[in-house]
Amino acid sequence: MTLPPLADMIDQAHGRIPADVVLRGGRVLDLVTGEFLEGDVAICGSMIVGTCEAYEGREVIDVSGRILVPGFIDTHLHIESSLVTPFEFERCVAPRGITTAICDPHEIANVAGIEGIRYFLEASARMLMDLRVQLSSCVPSTEMETAGARLEAEDLLPFRDHPAVIGLAEFMNYPGVIHKDAGAMAKLEAWRSRHIDGHAPLVSGLDLNAYLSAGIRTEHEATSAREALEKLRKGMRILIREGSVSKDLEALHSLITERNSPYIAFCTDDRNPLDIAEHGHLDHMIRTAIGRGAEPLAVYRAASLSAAEAFGLKDRGQIAPGRRADIVVLDDLADCRAQMVFCGGMRLTEEAFARRETVPPVARGSVKPPKIDAASFRTGGNRVETPVIGILPGKIITQHLSADIPPVDGDKRPDASRDLVKIAVIERHGKNGNVATGFVKGFGLKDGAIASTVCHDHHNIAVVGMDYGDMALAANRLKELEGGFVVVRGGEVLAELALPVAGLMSLEPFEAVKTSLEKLRAAARTLGVTLEEPFLQLAFLALPVIPHLKITDRGMVDVDRFELIS
Fold first, then answer.
1. Planar angle of CA 5, 11, 16, nearest 5 degrees
2. Residue 536 belongs to what H/E stretch?
3. Helix (H) or strand (E) holding 41
């Protein structure tokens, strides 16, 4: 963002010369006092220079009868999980009022390393919304993973002072912090004076004290009010998350009070275009929170001012002189439907999006799995009692279940009658070609197979299925697509979405991605799938640091018991 000349700002603020733009006739919601302020809003270039007074302007926009609020800030997200490029992402969400996004390019970094981070930094310089980047702290997330890249502290240091960089992204390796892993300590030391974002699900007590003593100040993984309160009491700012899979607003909305709101912000983490189209983005969170009884002042404060304060963005979060001109024009606070959006003083329109330059995509051809056949999905072992991943709808944490699955001809087979679905993770970065198998309960799958290269956080291929041949077809098709989602039944591909940018993002407009996701969801329903977001749920089944199965160089390990399964 280019700042206007200081002399021009002062002259326009004082009314000596006309403002560049004047918003006239609306009321400003002051997020400090909770008052509705009358008067014009004067804008000079990218900055607000006047409120509560009458102004003349070179351009006057009538916003009579409407309410003006500061632009919304998504405090933690992975743009890759929107399945589109950063430029399509902003075209999808900025018209809904999101003027700042703080992203962690963790997903593409785990595929392409520094090349992926550099792609987001270059994109940030050409976008209309303000994209801030946190440098990915855990690539790979843990030593149990086979990812496409490895980033140490010295790899990230050259980017520490980039103008788009805030600090270090979510520190997922909380055991490494608590137990002083050398690699974790090197990164924490290098960013000791900068913002470090947290990721510590269910961590409490002395472990939480140790984690926070490392200088970690924000957290989006609280899934209960009790967990969030402990973290608030110990100085963390809570980022309430409402994504396509992880939906924590229902559990945490009671915390959004005028007293707590300075220390609470909102984030989406992972939200796809279908969910955004059907429900919304941060605007959905605002509507939902107010609908659940939260105070509108507290909600809008969390959506902007508190978020800005949490991440040291002192130039935004209020409609006030000297602040960035990020403004959302609404008809109603409770309904939160943006009628106009100004980002850095620019009114967002399709024409404005069309004028910006983009950067070419990276990490093409990154899906390099071994050739897969039906036999790849056999699960050996003599023990009947078998660990099973239990899905908790609306959460990324899972249950550690077990079931008796006797081997037949040396193979433990899926069983639709008990909702025991075969899951496999296939190494796709060309490192070792490993295939590991296990079982999952909660998909409702009765037939066929579903496969994806969106597989947090290593982004190998994840496939679930009842038929080994269909699973093989789905996995092999992903290589041909350069990554994506596939639904297969009876040896036929029913629906697919190509994600050729690192196996994570489409090159198509977000509208086309939304249409493909609708077809994929409908195809998954024909297989008996009952989950609202089966593809993102599948992606999260491979997360580390929670009790379930993980792929390693030795095969699949039960994280609770650390025993080899295949």
1. 150
2. helix 534-540
3. strand 40-44
- The fraction of the chain above a pLDDT of 70, given in percent, is 95
How far is residue 311's CA from residue 299's CA, in Å, rounded to a whole number?
A: 18
What span, in angstroms and rounded, lies between the C-alpha atoms of 136 and 106?
5
8 Å CB contact between 121 and 133: yes
- Choose among 397, 347, 432, 425: nearest CA to 540: 397
Tokens, residue 513: 């991605």
Q: Is 97 left (phi over 0), alpha (psi -120 to 50) or beta?
A: left
Specify whether the CB–CB gap between 184 and 175 falls below 8 A: no
Q: Measure the CA–CA gap between 495 and 315, rounded to whole angstroms.
A: 46
Q: Backbone phi, then psi, for 351, in 5-degree steps? A: -65, -40
Instruction: Name the token pair of 337.
Output: 């439907």
Residue 22, beta-bridge partner list: 42, 60
Distance CA 134, CA 156 (A): 10
Write out pLDDT tens, residues 95-127: 999 999 999 999 999 999 999 999 999 999 999
Cα separation, 289 vs 301, whole angstroms: 12
Nearest one of 85, 81, 20, 82 to 50, comparing CA atoms? 20
Q: What is the rounded distance in angstroms from the CA atom of residue 482 to the CA atom of residue 362?
A: 12
pLDDT digits (tens, 9 = 90+) for 174-201: 999 999 999 999 999 999 989 999 999 9
Both tokens of 307, joined, read: 């978020």
Of residues 457 and 258, more confidently modeled: 258
* Alpha carbon distance 79, 102 (integer Å): 9
Strands 165-171 and 67-70: unpaired
H-assigned helices in 54-105: 86-93
Does 553 have pLDDT greater than 80? no
pLDDT at 277: 92
Helix axes 282-291, 296-303, angle to 10 degrees: 160
Mean pLDDT of 334-363: 97
How do strand 555-558 and strand 563-564 relate by DSSP bridges? Answer: antiparallel
Specify the pLDDT at position 105. 96
Average predicted confidence (pLDDT) for the chain: 93
Cα→Cα distances 134→77, 102, 195, Å: 10, 7, 9
pLDDT at 416 over 80: yes
- For residue 110 the two structure tokens come to 């785990």
